[in-house]
Structures are given as C-alpha cells and as structure tokens.
Amino acid sequence: MGSEQRRSTEFDGSALGDASARKTKASRYRRRFSRKSHDHPAPDSAVRRATAASALGNATEWYDYGIYAVATSYIASHFFAGFSNATLLTLATFAISFLVRPIGGLVWGPLGDRLGRKAVLATTILMMSGATFLIGVLPTAEQVGILAPILLITLRLVQGFSTGGEYGGVATYMAEYAPDHRRGFFGSFLEFGTIAGFALGTGLMLLMEVVLTPDQMSAFGWRIPFLLAAPIGLVGFYLRSRLDDTPVFTELDGASTASIEKDSASQTDSSETDAAPGIIGLIRDHWRTMLVMSGLVIAVNVVNYTLLTYMPTYLNHQIGLSSTMGLTVVLIGQLAMMALMPVVGRISDHTGRKPVWYFSLTALTLMAIPMFKLIGFNFGFAIVGFAALALLYIPQLSTITATFPSLFPTQARYSGFAITYNVATSIFGGTAAMVNEWAIGVTGDIAFPAYYMMAACLIGLVCVWHMPETAGASLRGTAVPGTLGSAVAEGSPAEQALEECRQPEQRSMEEHEMLEVTQHAIEEAEAFAEAVAATQEETAQDEAGEHPAPTVS
C-alpha cells in the first residue's frame, strides 16, 4: 500500500483485498475505520430550552431525594418512633424506593423508545413531585400508628417507580439534543441540576433550622421543603410539555415508519433492526454494554449516595457534629461541585470521557481513607475533606449524561440506559447509606464508607478499560456510537481512538476484519440516510399538498 493511501482521509474499500494481518498505526492512516460526522445540531435556542427543561426536571428529582436525606432525623422521630433502630429503618425506607426503580425502567424505557422521550418525561416529573408533596402532609405515627410508615413507604415506592423513567429519559434527551462536539459541556448542566436539587434541599433545611426553634422544626418546619416540591414540579412539567422530541429520535422514527411501510408491501422484515428491540432483544444484543455500564454505575452511585445522602447522618451520628454543622459541610461541598461541573464537562469534550473517568476513579481510590480521616478531626477539616472528595468525584458525575447514553444505539438508548442504570442503582446506590450505617455498627470502624467507595471505584476502573471512547461520536442513526464505521466529529477523541485502534472491539480484531466491518457499517449508514431523506421528502410533499400555492387569474 503506497504512502498516498496511508495518508488518505477517507475509507478506501480497495484496501480489503491486500490488508495485512497486523493492526495499523493511526499515525499512518486517517479515517480508515470511521466516517465523518455531518452533525446537524438543533438551533441554539432549542438546545438552551432543552438544557433548561432537563436540568430543572433533574433538580426536582434530586431535590426530592435530597430533602429526605437531610430530614432523616425528623422522619425517624415522626414515623418510626418507638423502634430502637429508627435511623436505620428511615435509611431502609430511603433505600426501598430503589427496589422499584428497575420496574420503572422496564416500563418507561421501552415506552420512551417507542413513543418518544418527551411524553414520558412530562409524566414522571409530575409523579415524582406529587409524591414528595404528599410526604409533607402525611400524618405521623403518633396520630395514626403503623399506617404512617406504611403510607411513607408507599409514596417512596411511587417516587422510585417514576425515577426509573426520569433519569434515563432526561439523560437520553439531553445527550441527543446536544451537538456531538459539545455533548460533555451541555450534558454537565443536567448533573448541575442534580447537585442544585440536593443543594436546594440542604439549603432550605438549613434555613429552617436557623430560623425556627427546635420545637417548631419538629412540629412543622421539616414539612415545608417537602411541600415546595409541588410548585417546582409544575414549573418543570410546563417546560417539558412545550418541548419537541429530539431530532435524533424523530429521524429514526420517520425512517423506521417508512421502512415498515416498504417492508409490508414486499412481505419482508428487514426493518427489525431499526425498531425498538424490547427487553429480550436488548439483553441479547447489548448485554456486554449493559454489563460494562453496570460497573460504571456502581462506582458512580456508591460514591454519590455515600457523599450526598449518607454524609449528613454520618457527620451527626458518627463524627458528632450538630445537624446545622453537618448540613453546612455538605452544602459548601455541593456549591463547590456546581462551580466545577461545566468546566469538567467541557474538558471531557477535548480530552475524551475515559481520561477524566480514569483520573476520578484512581484519585478517589487513593484519597478516600485520608479524607475520611480528615473529616473526623473537627468542623473545619470536615469541610476540607468532604469538599476534596466531592471535587474528585466531579469528573464522573459531570460526564454521566455524555457517557452512558452514548453506549447504546438510538433504537435501544432509552430502554438500555434506564434498565441498566436502575438495576445497578437499586442494588448498590440507594442501599449505600443503609449499608454504611449497618457496617459501622457491626465493625465499629467509622472509616468503612471509605473502604466501600474504594471497592466501587476499583470495579469502575475495570469497566472503563472496556468502555469505548465516545467523545465526538454521533448519536444519529442505528449504529452504536464509537464503533467501527460509525460517524465521528473530525479531530475528536472518538475519531482518534478508532484510527489508533484503541476501541475495545478493535483489540481482538485484525486489520482486514476491521476494514470489512467498517465497510458494512458504512453501507448500512447510507441506507439509513436514504430512508431519512425519503421520509423528509414525503413530509415536504404532504405539507405542500395541504397548502397549495395560490393561483393567479
């Protein structure tokens, strides 16, 4: 193969015949295993509206979870009074909502892939905020006895069911709306909403404790943040109901419809691969991706729920800080996280998702024990230690929206994300606070949360090795982003990974195999593009028929 061919910027199909049996060096070849992304991003105004609606909805969701976490002592005294382990029961009630999150993912995920992202997200935000509001008006155990914790658990189950469709859907929506080369930056605002929700709940509870007396706080003050979920949820519903579905989903929906009509006429079934796969098809076709993502979710959520939901209880019960001091420590750390998130999201667009994940997971593994030791000294060191752990966690949290949806093709994205995320979260995320509290009680070692975080981060490091680089990969069409023959932005980390043979699927393939897979992927992409173009042409003709040009007499 000549030097001009080595420097070619387009895939050369003739290379199939004389490809050597060894892998190529990317410095010699350009665009042999990928194709250029012709990204057609939505207008800036539409992206801003989608970002605002997604972030506000996510803030509502995590505001609901956040206020429960910081109101643990009040919930324990009002709903589990008389039990010797009231705090552990309260944390178990927090965890129980995560048991139904996979069920929510199984229901909402396939619906989102079939009906669209918008309708599901408008419904889940109402369910979540409504259940939170009702917690604020529940009678206590002193008033209605055992019925009080039963009602509380029921509402937590409603929250878990709605969240099963909320987070996977809103992350998918935001990822599909963002431009390929800026997905990390725009996606970071979704997680900005996550921390904003936690911070708002923490700040309101802290404000209540400062303004009200302890008796007033116990009598009614703890309820106020729960009641505020109603107006916040209504605002989020209004914003989401006015959004359009993502261009990526709209293209696939139109192309699939046209393909189904064509196949019906010819009595074939070739459209099967473009349709939403269903649960069995999802597991059959994407089980490796689901396994890799599960490991990443374990790392993310053990750290997340240890730091953001268990830490107020930990600081109060294990370290001995007052409730006000504990909330102050957490709030300062949350505000620092919010300031850094868009910056890290932008960095990941340039360096790639994998480098920032490697950094975060490695740093947390090394620093977890020293920082937990620091937190135990006094109030000032607690602020420093918690803030350090929170900031080291940011490279994971701020890139979730850009990373996880990009692991699946469009037709399986919502369901793949929702089901995988919620199953792993239900087992390792929502239970983190309960596991930490129980383990400290059994072992007497207040550093156990650090060990738990370290184990989760080690699992995450293994899975990052098997995760493809998707920064700059296109989410359009039916191909898995970042795989051989997929569309990538020029000069992006995804393009570099493909051309340097660093993607996981390339490690076990010879050069000629990669070229064959690439050619096949390009042919499928061209067929999909033709279907999209045909659909758009038919739509334009229909619109022209509905509004014919006026005749001149």
Descriptive overview:
The protein is an all-alpha fold. 73% of the residues lie in helices and 1% in strands. The chain is built from 24 helices and 2 strands. Helix 7 (117-135) runs antiparallel to helix 9 (147-177). The protein is globular. Residues 1-29 and 257-273 have low confidence and may be disordered.
Detail the topology: elements first, then pairings.
Blueprint: H1 3-6, H2 15-18, E1 35-36, H3 44-70, H4 72-79, H5 86-96, H6 101-115, H7 117-135, H8 141-144, H9 147-177, H10 183-211, H11 214-219, H12 224-227, H13 229-241, H14 247-266, H15 278-319, H16 323-351, H17 353-375, H18 379-397, H19 400-403, H20 410-428, H21 432-443, H22 448-465, E2 487-488, H23 493-499, H24 511-546
Parallel strand pairs: 1-2
Helix pairs in contact: 3-7, 3-9, 3-10, 3-13, 3-15, 4-5, 5-21, 6-7, 6-9, 6-20, 7-9, 7-13, 9-10, 9-20, 10-16, 14-24, 15-16, 15-18, 15-20, 15-21, 15-22, 16-17, 16-18, 17-18, 17-22
Task: Offer a quick outline of the entry.
The chain is an all-alpha fold. The protein has 24 helices and 2 strands.
- Individual helix count: 24
Structural class of the secondary elements?
Answer: mainly alpha
List low-pLDDT spans: 1-29, 257-273
Distance between the termini: 67 Å
Helix content: over 70%
Pattern of helices and strands: HHEHHHHHHHHHHHHHHHHHHHHEHH
- The averaged pLDDT comes out at 81
* Main sheet makeup: 2 strands, parallel
User: Which outline best applies?
Assistant: globular
In percent, how much strand structure appears in the residues? under 5%
- Mind telling me the C-alpha Rg? 25 Å
Strand order of the largest sheet: 1-2
**Strand segment count:** 2
